[in-house]
Amino acid sequence: MSVDVERVKAAVAELLVAIGEDPERDGLVATPRRVAAMYEELFSGMHDDPARHLEVTFSAEHDEMVMVRDIPFASLCEHHLVPFLGRAHVAYIPAEDGRITGLSKLARLVDGFARRLQVQERMTTEIADAIDNVLTPRGVLVVIEAEHLCMSMRGVRKPGTTTVTSSVRGTFRSDPATRAEALAFVHARR
Q: What is the reported pTM?
């Protein structure tokens, strides 16, 4: 099932009335349509299996860490329907066969899980689980850093606050030196 555009348009028009606006006002006439189109895009990952991006692998005979750092993403918090914006850092150590996936596939994986109602903790775990299940690597490490607008613009109102979550599997969990190397890469800045 995809986004029901007509229902979203009707709901947005009703929401505008509920907050005291006139959905027929010049600046708002097209708002229900624009919001429905936005939701189609923002929730495009809800009925997709982002792990499918990892199914293409290449023989590289590589047995060291592969990391894609600073993958930008935007998602919507399922608690307030407000965005959280951040960066994902994704690392894995290929399986014994040395096969790797394309670097862009890791970014697509992040986008796929971000494009649904989310909480950061679950998103972090979903990304790590997908890599672990599809690539069967010797280790996986996912770190996500994000600012949650539900904390920045409402409630406690602490803009600039960053939430950091991690999900660690295999060698990254069992070998402190390997984990430290990966975290050093995550925190290294140009």
A: 0.94
